[in-house]
Amino acid sequence: MKFINLFKKELSELINKQMIISLIATMAIFMILGSVMTESISDISEETKSVTINISDRDKTEFTGNLMKSLEELNSETTELTIKTFETEGDDYAAILSENDIENIVIIPEGFTAALDKTEQPELIAVSRMKSAATLSNLNVDNSSAIALIEQSISDTIANDTGMSDSQYKLMNNPVIITENTVIDDKSAVISTSSIISKISMQNMILPIIVFVLIMLTSQMLMSAISNEKLDKTLETLLSAPVSRLSVLGAKMLAAAVVALLNAVAYMIGFSKFVSGASDTLSEEAESLANKGLTVDAALEQLGLSLGFTDYLLVGLQLFFTIMICLSISLILGALINDSKNAQNMLMPIMMMAMVPYMISMMTDINALPTVIRLLVYAIPFTHTFSAIPNLMFGNTSLFFIGLGYQIIIFAVCIFFALRLFMSDKIFTISLNFGQKSRYKKKRKNSEEE
Amino acid sequence: MISTLLTPTDGDAIVGGYSVVKEPEKVRECITYLPDEAGAYKNMKGISYLRFMAGLFSSDIDTINKCVDRAKEICGLGERLNDKIGTYSRGMIRKLLLARAVMTKPKLAILDEPTSGLDVLNAIEIRKTIKKLAQEEGMSFLLSSHNMLEIEFVSDRVGIIAKGHLMVTGKIDELKQRYNAANLEEVFERVVKENEIH
């Protein structure tokens, strides 16, 4: 009953209007971002399907005339292709683009046919306007399809001239058929590594972000819950009431964990909407392009990359210990705060501990790092949470269990010190001051001097 | 130490028949503590704060309601109890906290500088409340203050502490007589000076 009373108070301290508004805002932002991504990706795939080729022939020979004619034939055959011809001169390409109100153009310069006749490589001028550094917004100003078509028709002409048979010509263009296989441990599947990576990288992005948010939120909440009580001197009132210190502490930890979990769920929902918005459209296309017969999901299953129920249970267990470590460290750090200004700085150690493995796990495989750095990174308890899913996926179960064991030990050590701190007088007297004496110590020193 | 927040390195104190060293939980059941410059949870309403604190002393709803009713009466904040504590003035918070400290009818209420930083009227009101509760309810108060007039007004017995040592204890009239002083302030001055000479 008393514990419930304490727990309710802690929850009501943590769940307030600002928290709920920020939670809803985060979810909304992710969802909006997700639908923006879906829209812009489908826009682009529409645009790439309907290619517009802008071309200018300055050579005006029989050969280039035929080339233009064959392109125009293509134009009438397919609805997805639009070819526009322009008359241009000079090398002020910016002016050419703006005069004709276009974003890209391919120019066949004078002497093009002459070079071909001499069996030299002729020059083709491609101009495109770059509007931003964003990858997606530049996709449709690419000249590559125009160039490919021109190259294709030149190859066709040469093949015709040399009297090459159709089958020979096809073989020359596509000399080999590649059957890609991926092997993981002792299992293999007929699929390219790139399509596996594109599938699992999106999935594996969600967990680290949630872990990161969870770590930051729980520690921040618990630290401010404790430091506020200490600074407002409500802790003294609370601890002089007939409740055990353990239940005060337990209520705080539980409330912080519950609220953090609530946040994590909100992030998960929002983020999965965002990711599915981005990845569905992309992976559909990737799947239709990359696979013959085998879907990516089936390939993942075949390679043992898909996670089963026990795997998720183990990941959940590790997440639990991660949060417990987080809570016990924040208990200690929260008690060290002696004014509201240094509360922010106190979050730094936890932030670094979460940031380093988060960044590394996003960029590279921790197991592939040089030994010394790898051991240093593994010494950070949160690293094991970030590497849990990859470890389980790729069958490094021993590494996973070592990580879990390490986390349990770290948790035991941290909670031991946290409890010792809270059960002793130190909770009222301890503070971390860089070159500045705590009020308590100052008082004591003054009274000794007098 | 009497509030059981700090453990004595040596010695003991008996509060309500229980040792602060051996049975601090029992001691906490019969005391309340109001720290110097204490605050309250700013996001909580006054009434919720009283209810929460009463809930720490008892699990019985009737007892909790009785405590809260008592506190309402003592603090005299009326409708303002339904506002968040963050909107209260210092005097109002102090009244709320004092009401909280006495609502459970503890055998001993420890008040650290109960009127520090308050305006004259608020301070008088709080002193009167303390005196009334001691007389009518038979509660004991352990009160620390730098304001000798306040001590003289509310206390039966006085102890003077200087440099962390308890110098003298006694009833106010006895002390005034012993030090040939007109008021407690002079007693304090003489006690401190006397101890400096030795």
Structural account:
The complex is a heterodimer of chains A (450) and B (198). Chain A is α/β, with parallel strands linked by helices. Chain A contains 20 helices and six strands. Chain A has helices spanning 2-14, 17-49, 62-77, 93-100, 112-117, 135-138, 144-162, 166-173, 193-231, 234-239, 245-290, 296-303, 309-336, 342-363, 371-379, 383-386, 388-393, 397-423, 426-429, 439-449; strands spanning 51-57, 81-85, 104-108, 125-128, 182-184, 187-189. In chain A, the strands form two sheets. A four-stranded mixed beta sheet of chain A has the order 2-1-3-4. A two-stranded antiparallel ribbon of chain A has the order 5-6. The model of chain B has no long low-confidence stretch (mean pLDDT 85). Chain B is built from eight helices and seven strands, in the order ββαβαααβαβαββαα. Chain B is of the alpha/beta class and 198 residues long. Chain B has a single domain (14-155), classed as P-loop containing nucleotide triphosphate hydrolases (Rossmann fold, 3-Layer(aba) Sandwich).
Task: Note the topology.
The complex is a heterodimer of chains A (450) and B (198).
Chain A: H1 2-14, H2 17-49, E1 51-57, H3 62-77, E2 81-85, H4 93-100, E3 104-108, H5 112-117, E4 125-128, H6 135-138, H7 144-162, H8 166-173, E5 182-184, E6 187-189, H9 193-231, H10 234-239, H11 245-290, H12 296-303, H13 309-336, H14 342-363, H15 371-379, H16 383-386, H17 388-393, H18 397-423, H19 426-429, H20 439-449
Parallel strand pairs in A: 1-2, 1-3
Antiparallel strand pairs in A: 3-4, 5-6
Chain B: E1 14-15, E2 18-19, H1 24-30, E3 31-34, H2 46-57, H3 61-75, H4 90-102, E4 108-112, H5 120-137, E5 140-144, H6 148-154, E6 157-162, E7 165-171, H7 172-178, H8 184-197
Parallel strand pairs in B: 3-4, 4-5
Antiparallel strand pairs in B: 1-2, 6-7
Helix pairs in contact in B: 2-3, 3-4, 4-5
